[in-house]
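User: Hi! I'm a student and our assignment asks us to look at how structure tokens line up with a sequence. Could you show me two examples?

Assistant: Happy to help. In each example below, the sequence comes first and the structure tokens follow. Example one:
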Amino acid sequence: MRKILGIVIISIALFACNKFDTDLTDVKSDNNNEQVQSRISIGDQYFYTANNIDYIINFIDVTGDSRCPTGVDCFWQGEAIIKLLVSDSNGNSEETLLSTEDLEKEILSLKMTIKELSPYPVYKKEINKSDYVLELEVK
């Protein structure tokens, strides 16, 4: 029930806010420092609160996707690299690259892990950037 409530709050916040400089106190998601997973597309924002600090996580881009496509035998599984911009209500901001190979990366005191990046590559099929969806774990 809490996850559904969190998703509803986040959805409302995403539709209500279309500028990055939005007052964070108006879009707070009360997740009580729990580990949460969110699915966001390129250009979307995710709002997270931890230790009375509000965060905005922006999914900027997929800068590279060398994951071994379905239908091909590879000697290396490859990786995808995503670009995030993380900002907090204290005025801090950090742009970072996160890999599907990273176990966990700390950005502005948040621990983040890519749980999934879809769609997964298929041999001889191009993926439009607008089709990418990131499942990100934040704690």
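Example two works the same way, sequence first and then tokens:
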Amino acid sequence: MCVSAEESEGRGPERPVAILLHRLSDGSEHVDLFIGPVDGRNVKDDERAVLSWRCATRPDALPIGGVTAIERIADHRGRYLRLTTPTDLSDNRGHVTPLRRGVGRGAATIAIAWADGGHSRWRFDESAGRATLTALSTAEPRSADSEENPATRRS
């Protein structure tokens, strides 16, 4: 994949991002991270063009500087970027639950604006056959209570 300097540094076309919890039929579970194509094009529901990783931990829950192991898995269908409800998978592959969705920009470094108002910035690294994701920054969504109620607002 050829990536421009702009795309590698958290800029470039918008790309949908989704994090799903995948519970397998044997009872084990892991987190899947899905990111739309680098060129920002819209992926059809049945098109297998969504970049996909299995993550050791939820990447959006990492503290700044936190690192998690990731494993590149086969490209998935576009529908996984748009899931809004828990879904049983065919062929006894388990069950997926959407955890978070947003829009990102970039490739090697991706800046994500989550649909809930939070933000993340991550760096993907791969060396010696080991792939990791590092949290560069994170901001949780503001609660409606903290903005509307002066007694709970932080100064």
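Here is something you could point out in your write-up. The chain has one domain: 5-148.
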